[in-house]
Write a structure and sequence with these properties.
By secondary structure, the protein is of the alpha/beta class. It has a seven-stranded mixed beta sheet, sandwiched between helices. Strand 2, helix 5 and strand 3 form a beta-alpha-beta unit. The longest helix has 22 residues. It starts with 5 loop residues before the first helix and ends with a strand. The structure holds S-adenosylmethionine (SAM). The site of S-adenosylmethionine has 20 residues, from helix 1.
């Protein structure tokens, strides 16, 4: 069993409560105060969020379904999901600043706050049972074995489906990463990991889930593989 090292987790939490919060809060907003790289990350990330929302919308009425948005950031997914009428959404993040911003944005958007819960928690501490668990672009902070362990943990929290997105390992991305052209955001202060897709799929399959669809979203400086798993 390989979990993320506590020291690394503390570093990530500190980053996303400090300079990382400012950076990512701007990226995940409509602010003009972003550079070209950050603007591209925003565009790429929005594609991932839009895909998830479109896939969930295909299910029809979401009002009887419960969702867990694990590592919710500033609520880029939770908020539109609430607006789509999701029954309940448990939004959590390791960063208290991120959770507070999600809450602030939800109130600002006049969403039905009774359907949303906000918790400061790392992925490892998450408990509960949801129809669907979603974890977008958080695995960038997890090395391969820890990410696979996390997939198994998240599978244990969902009755029906799991949606995850992560930066995929490819030789080209590995090269770009080595020469420092990729992940200029997180890599400034935290490590950034790319993951082998087959390992992630095997981990979910070992828990009785199968991949039912997958999409690679890209923009310059953003690469993210989104996979939807369904319980067999
Ligand atoms: N999922 C959100 C989205 O797609 O809009 C946020 C993505 S952002 C790149 C990564 C987020 O993961 C940050 O908000 C960070 O605080 C959170 N995070 C990183 N490591 C975490 C961990 N071990 N447990 C929970 N959240 C974590």
């Amino acid at each position: 069993r390989q979990e993320l090292k506590q020291a690394e987790k503390t570093e990530v939490a500190n980053y996303f409560n400090g300079t990382g919060f400012d950076r990512w809060n701007r990226i995940y907003s409509e602010s003009d105060d972003v550079n070209k790289v950050q603007r591209n990350i925003r565009i790429g990330h929005q594609k991932t969020v839009d895909d998830v929302l479109a896939w969930l919308q295909e299910r029809g009425d979401l009002s009887a379904m419960s969702f867990c948005d694990a590592g919710c950031g500033v609520g880029s997914l939770s908020l539109p999901l609430a607006a789509m009428g999701a029954g309940s959404i448990a939004a959590s993040d390791i960063s208290a600043a991120m959770v507070a911003e999600t809450k602030r944005r939800a109130a600002d958007a006049q969403l039905d706050l009774s359907r949303l819960t906000f918790t400061t928690s790392d992925l490892e501490s998450l408990q509960g049972c949801f129809h669907t668990v979603i974890c977008l672009d958080v695995f960038i902070h997890y090395p391969q074995q820890a990410a696979e362990e996390m997939v198994r943990h998240l599978c244990g929290l969902t009755q029906e489906s799991l949606l995850v997105s992560f930066a995929p390992y490819t030789p080209l991305l590995a090269l770009l990463k080595r020469i420092g052209q990729l992940f200029p955001g997180p890599s400034k202060t935290t490590r950034a990991y790319t993951l082998r897709e087959d390992g992630i799929i095997k981990a979910a399959m070992g828990c009785g889930f199968e991949p039912i669809r997958s999409k690679l979203n890209q923009a310059p400086f953003y690469f993210s593989r989104l996979i939807e798993f369904k319980k067999i």
